[in-house]
Structures are given as C-alpha cells and as structure tokens.
Amino acid sequence: MDRETLFDCTGLVVVITGGGTGLGLCMARSLAINGATVYILGRRLSKLEEAVGSCSSIQPPGEVIPLECDVTSKPSLEAAASKIGEKTGFVNLVIANAGVPGPSNRALLPRPADDPRGPLAIQEVQQHLWETSIDDFTEVFKINVTGALYTAVAFLDLLDKGNVRRNVKQSSQVIITSSIGGFHRSWTQASLAYTTSKAAVNHLVKSLASFLVQWKIRVNGLAPGLFTSEMMQAVFGKDRDLTAEGALPVEMQPLRRAGRDEEMAGTILYLASQAGAYCSALYDTKSLEWATLPPHPSAARRFLKVRLGHMCICNRDSRVSGCSVSL
Ligand SMILES: NC(=O)c1ccc[n+]([C@@H]2O[C@H](COP(=O)([O-])OP(=O)(O)OC[C@H]3O[C@@H](n4cnc5c(N)ncnc54)[C@H](OP(=O)(O)O)[C@@H]3O)[C@@H](O)[C@H]2O)c1
Predict the structure, then answer these.
(1) Pocket residues for ligand 1 (CB within 6 Å)?
(2) So where does this one cross the membrane (predicted)?
(3) pLDDT in tens, 185-241
C-alpha cells in the first residue's frame, strides 16, 4: 500500500488524444514519469514532437511517443490503432481527451446595469445565435463527442487484449475528458456548442460504460474545472498566470484560481493506477461544487450520493445558483 506501488504505472500502455498540448500533455508526462508507455495523438505532428522534446528527462521504462491522428477520421484512427497494435499488441488505457472550445457566446453574457446599450434585446440574442453556422456548431460535436466515441471504438480490440494480457492488475479503461461546462448552465461557460457537447460526453461515458461492462473495459469521465492550455489562452490571453492565488473571481472558480499541473497529474495517476482500479462510470469533477452544490457540507451530502463499487454521482434535482447536476 505504499505510494510508489499504489500509483505506479510501469508497464501501462496508454493512448491520449490531444496529448501534444495542455491537459493531455500534462497527463502524458505524469503517466510516463511513473513508468507508462504513452502514445500522444493529435493532428499537428510538430506540436507532438515539441511535446516529446519537453519530456526528454523522463527515464525508461517511461516513454512518450508521438503519432499523428485526427479523431474525426476513421482511417486515421484505424491507422493509429494498427501502428500501436503492431508495436505493443495491446493497450491498457485510452484517454479520449481531444477537444475544441467552439464558437463563443460571450456576447450574450448579461450586461452591467450602466451599459449604455441597455439590456440585451431578444433580437440581438437571435442575431448572435443565428450568425454561427450550423457547420461550425456541429464541428464541436464532431470532435468532442463523435471523435471521443470513435477513439474508444478504434481501440476496443487492443483494450480487450490488455485485459487478456493482464500485465497490470487494473482492467482496461477508457477515460473521456468532459468539462464542468457539461454540468452547469452558468453563462460563464459562454459557449452553447461546447457545454452541450460536454453534456453529451457525460451521457456517452455512462452509455459506453454500460455497453462494455461485459468485457470489463471500464469507462470513466474526467470533468476538469479551469486549467491553463491553448484553449484557455484563447479566452484569457497568454500573459496572466491564472494559477496564482486570487487570479480568478470566486463566482468563476471556487478556489479563485485555475488548476495546476500537479492537480491534474494526481487525478490521472489515481484513475490510471491500481489506486483507481475500482472506478467505473465515475466522474471525477474538479471545482464543480460551487456551480452545482449548496455550500454547506451537510446540505451537499444530501445531493451527493456516492455508491462504491460502481461509483457515480447522483442528483436529486440539485438546482442551485441556476445550475443542476443530472447524472
Ligand atoms: N483547459 C481547461 O480549462 C479545460 C476545462 C475543462 C475541459 N477541458 C477539456 O480538456 C481537453 C483538452 O483541452 P486543453 O484545455 O488541454 O486544450 P488544448 O491544449 O487546446 O488541447 C486540445 C487538444 O486536442 C487536439 N485536437 C483537437 N482536435 C483534434 C482532432 N480532430 N483530432 C485529434 N486531436 C485533436 C489538439 O491538437 P491538434 O490541434 O494538433 O489536433 C490539442 O492537442 C478538451 O477536451 C477540453 O474540452 C479543458
């Protein structure tokens, strides 16, 4: 039960889409530092190679390997699975993490009382929403939802082979990166395409977990709060350190800052290693509580029901601050 054994990832073969940047790269690094062989997939080979360069201090058996792949293309996913299969013969963990933010709806945030334009008129709302093309809206679903599903499907045979091989104690697993945006209705999320795609991801986790239970391929969801990445830099700019204490207002993030690398690393090491081997159809949410639960812990307990064995978070119409959890 010592921490080295409990969180050890030696021997794990892991595939991470969107592994060349942001959260995916953070996960890849922490898994490889702890012994895993990690294939990082993305469309831009240059970014993937840059990412591998940033992992040069990682010691064997840990390794990070780049592989070009577009999660919206079946031939591309098939080629990636085939290349990895030829090298390893099996996979233990697939992290469907690739994602895009989608068209912003920040223009629809409520205006301050002293805004000379006055309150938003319904015609402005209509015009703003109409301006986004159906293709642009749908593209977000194509990558965030359909891409996550097809990523999982492309690796099912190799995940099954991981279970047969039993090179590690924990059974094979798919983790899909969702977002707190998929749980609450706050305008602070400000992209309808993104938040609705992540809500769809949440249901995908549950559905896939049910489909695959017979083959002991576990499916879990990871719903991060705000972490700095290319995606977030597009919203907040590159110059601010969002991880500094007090960098963000409390109504945006309960801890008043963005998440740090070690906090994501700890989460993924838990889920990937023996420590998280009993997680199935679980959501690990980061900084969700403020948006969804009453602040008092005793009240929160009434809303949060955690069943061990097949862990999930259940709701009881927990409508708080205009938000709800519905799993
Ligand atoms: N950062 C946050 O605060 C936050 C919060 C909640 C959830 N998330 C989720 O975390 C995940 C990672 O996002 P991030 O914040 O780390 O942003 P990021 O740095 O922009 O990462 C997104 C990654 O997805 C890859 N990608 C996009 N489309 C792809 C496609 N069609 N095929 C393959 N790869 C593709 C990108 O690489 P290429 O462009 O090279 O393909 C990139 O590496 C996303 O699912 C995001 O929704 C992030």
Answers:
(1) 17-18, 20-24, 42-44, 47, 69-72, 97-100, 143, 147, 177, 179, 224, 226-227, 229-232
(2) none
(3) 765 557 999 999 999 999 999 999 999 999 999 999 999 989 988 888 777 788 889
Pairing, β 63-68 against β 93-96 = unpaired
| Domains of the chain by residue range | 3-104+141-292
Kindly report the pTM of this predicted structure.
0.89
278 is catalytic: no
- Rounded CA-CA distance 225/259 in Å is 7
Q: Which atom of ligand 1 is nearest to the CA of 71?
A: 32
Active-site annotation holds for 280: no
Q: Which residue, by CA, sits nearest to atom 6 of ligand 1?
A: 179
Region 3-104+141-292: CATH code: 3.40.50.720
**Using one digit for the tens of pLDDT, what is the confidence trace for 101-131?**
999 998 888 888 999 999 999 999 999 999 9
Q: Could you confirm whether 206 is annotated as catalytic?
A: no
